[in-house]
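Note to self: keep these together.
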Amino acid sequence: MPRTPANHPHHAPRRRSLLAAAGLVSAAVSLGPLTGCGSGARTATDQSGEDEQPRRGGRLRATFAGGGANETLDPHRANLFVDVVRAKAVFDKLADYADDMSAEPRLAESWEPNGSLDRWRVSLRDAAFHDGRRVTAADVLYSFRRIADPDDTFRAKADLELIDLDASGAEGDRVVEFRLKRPSADFPAVLATFGAYVVPEGTTDFDRPVGSGPFRLTSFAPGRSAEYERNDDYWDGAPYLDALEITVANEESARVNALLGGQVEYAHELNPATARAHEDAGQVRIVRLANSAMQAFVMKTDRPPFDDPRVRQAFFLIADRQELIDGALSGAGEVGNDLFGRGYQYYADSLPQRRQDLARARELLRAAGAENLEVTLDTSDVAMGFTEAAAIFRDQAAAAGVTVTVRTGNPDSYWADILDSGTLACYRSGAMPIGTHISQRLLRDSPTNATQWRRADFDELYQQTQATADEAERTGLYERLQRQLHDEGGFLVWGFADWILGTANHVRGVSPTAPANSLDWARFDKVWLA
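Structure:
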């Protein structure tokens, strides 16, 4: 596998404007947050400021939904969107996700594996913490070992399980040798995993956090606001802004009104109705971040009726995906094709787009002995569009002779409830690499296998992808994995929702292409005020 330098054109730090949305790191971070059919034109190039000369100075105020007393400045505990935004303002990771969820070097200057892909040598760039200390290999190893603490529950812990941190070590101040428990061609994605921030060695108190990021924290009031000043010594270039303020407004109407009233310049997480109302009015700019949230139904493949692949295939053909986009997402999204990760690295876009075919669905159900099938569909108001999607699919299924009973669950326990219980449920996921989606959700030992998909041959093929250094060959293996899921998997992926935000007209440098949880989502060091 070739060495990946920081100045490689694919991995070069981005100064062009991009916009992102989530793997959903917000209220439902583990499940996840789009140009879309019926969603109107995208506002992108006019937002970027690429035709204007960036200017320094000014203060930008951004508002997000918050978590009150649950908000934290500890970057390893960041779970809400607002926590993550604060973390990335102050801290850096070794790598981060590009728009296509490939790994892009950050504090890592380069990485190189051995021939068997179970040792990776990571060279650090020359970067400094806010107190002047240089970022070293000891800081990296301390941070990863803190996250992996068996007595604690940090967000990135499961992803770092691949690393044998006892055997890993430093080679001087600027090189870390990571030893892995098994081969991994996708190891750079682990370095970019959500929450894997590098903190100074020995740090346990984050009341006054010291990081290596583009801003320094100057004040913090949980549930209200956090204020920052520019880090002039930032390794990736000093931010254009003098200051940044991140405020909390839990109600979408409060965020919109603050933007319209000039109290903030950036409002996160707007709904489609708001976007339509203001998109062409000229008072603010609406930015739609495509491919940010997969929308799906999960079918339990280990129990009737979905243990018969013909029933799953029938349900794939029952779905009118555009009707679901238009009705459940108000048109703000793109149709799905029963695969996660549209637009991401390794996505199998060569597979034919599935379309509704009720006659064929009836044939498959008849062949499976499942005529007049009755099934319960679990849903909840835990996520936008879930209850609407359930009602729409119920009516679509009736046209194929299937009776769907919609059962509305408790939003506080919904994700835990549907993981092992029931047979059919509404589901969504934010952005993450396709390999991460597979490892977390589709292997026999995956911790969040909501479809109960467990195939020895599938696991073996996935392990083969991880032991394959050649990029083209690995891409082909990923396509084989996805072809199997497309043919008979348990995810009925009907769409990908836009993640929507608004900005004041004079804000520039906001990326229009970055899914939430990617590097350029909510990245304020490259934003400037015209």
